[in-house]
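Good morning C.,

I know you're traveling, so I'll keep this short. The sequence:
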Amino acid sequence: MNEPFQSLVSTQWLAGHLGQADLVILDASRHLPAANRDARAEFEGGHIPGARFLDLAALTDTRSDVPAALPRPDQISEALAKLGVQKGARIVIYDDSAVKTCARAWFSLVRCGITNVAVLDGGLGKWRAENRPLETGAVIAEPAEPFALSAGTRAATKAQMLENLENRESQVLDARARDRVFGSGIDPVHGGQNGRIPGSLNLPFGEVLNADGTFKSPEELREVFEAAGVDFSRPVITTCGSGVTASVLLFAAHLAGKNDVCLYDGSWQEWEADPATPKEQGPQ
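The tokens, ready to paste straight into the viewer:
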């Protein structure tokens, strides 16, 4: 019998479990346009043995008015089936992205009810640094039967964010760099004005990581969140520019034992574009 599957696995653990029949490894790398990187080409140039490429850039609900909206359950089901992922498989997700897109992929699957999914701590960068084996070339998997999924309630809408401004039920935690949250110039990533949702706390996503890209320990993460002003007894909604690095904070909170956390799907990209939404700029 397999041991309980954790949400975060080490490179050592993965190296010891390569080739197991029920284990699927997915490369969920996605890069910001300014990085000028081709995630699929880089995957074909070198990936963890047995890995399959999860095209995270294509996993967006284009029916939604939300920019870069989270994928629908049927999109997740179809994508996994094309990659040969069987129902009940154990899934390990990694990336080689500066914005830790593995967390976005993890949340996309978890919110649809997939529980046996983990993030590779340190991602491809740590795997390479340890001189572990790589494979090259495209990977074509034998398709699997799609299985039904349904979306949970952990994604907040703009309407819910506006309601939260009134009742202050949840704390809003922004994962962007401080100059984007508290500055008054143009957002260097998505355009539009810098700024924040009124009352937001700020925790730049990199602060939940160690220098080697691994996540800090649960105890350290709790300290980092509390230092940012987060009250662990109250719910949290994470936000960022487009919902990617907000997923990193959501995953880090999960590691710290806090799961009453939602993701604002539209994030600042949606909020800033609406002239009717209230905004704050400058120091708190």
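Safe travels,
E.
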